[in-house]
Amino acid sequence: TQLLEQSPQFLSIQEGENLTVYCNSSSVFSSLQWYRQEPGEGPVLLVTVVTGGEVKKLKRLTFQFGDARKDSSLHITAAQPGDTGLYLCAGAPGNQFYFGTGTSLTVIP
Amino acid sequence: NAGVTQTPKFRVLKTGQSMTLLCAQDMNHEYMYWYRQDPGMGLRLIHYSVGEGTTAKGEVPDGYNVSRLKKQNFLLGLESAAPSQTSVYFCASRHEGRLNTGELFFGEGSRLTVL
Predict the structure, then answer these.
(1) Does the distance separating the beta carbons of B101 and A50 come in below 8 Å?
(2) Is there a cis peptide before residue A93, judged by omega within 30 degrees of 0?
(3) In this complex, which of B42, B50, B100 lies closest to A101 when CB atoms are compared?
C-alpha cells in the first residue's frame, strides 16, 4: 500500500470537458505538491500547497489542499490535448519524498 | 544549465550482473533521491540522501545500494541484477525548503532492462 493514493488511475476525455483528480492519504502532510510528467521525461512541478483548505489556481488548473492536510485535488477546466500526461501528487513526511500512484490523462481532440 | 544529469540513459543487463547508475546535480542541493517507475505504480522511493556522506532507505531499497561521497553526486548500485529490477530509474534533487516545500528537479531517467 502506497502512502499516497490517487484516483482515477486512468482518464480519457474529450477536449473541452472538465475533470478532477484526487490524492488521498491517511497521513498528515506539511505540504503537498503536484507534478506533471510527459513520456520520456522526468516529472515537473506544477504547484505546492501548504495551508489546509488552500486553493491555488494556475490558468485552467485549480488545486486544493484538504482542511486536515491529508488530501488534495486537481481540477482541470476545459481540458485541452496539451494537458495530456501523467499527473502525480507528492509529499514529504520527514526527509523522505513520496509520490502518489499517478493519474494518466488523455485528452482527445 | 545542466540541472540533474543521469548516466547511462539505457542499459541492458543479464541476470546476476552488476552496474552503477550515476546522478550528478549542479544546483548545490542538499537532498537527493533515487526512484523507480513501473507501469501503474507512480514513482517509488528506493534510497535518499540528506547530505554528503549520508544515505537512508526508502520504500523499496532491497537489491540496491547507494553512496554519496560528494555533494553533487548520488550513485545507485545493483550488485546482482534481477529481472524484477527492470524499470525506469529517476534521480531527483532539491533544497530542503520550509515545510518540505522545496521543488524536486529530475533527471531524464535511465531505462534498465534485466534479461
Answers:
(1) yes
(2) no
(3) B42
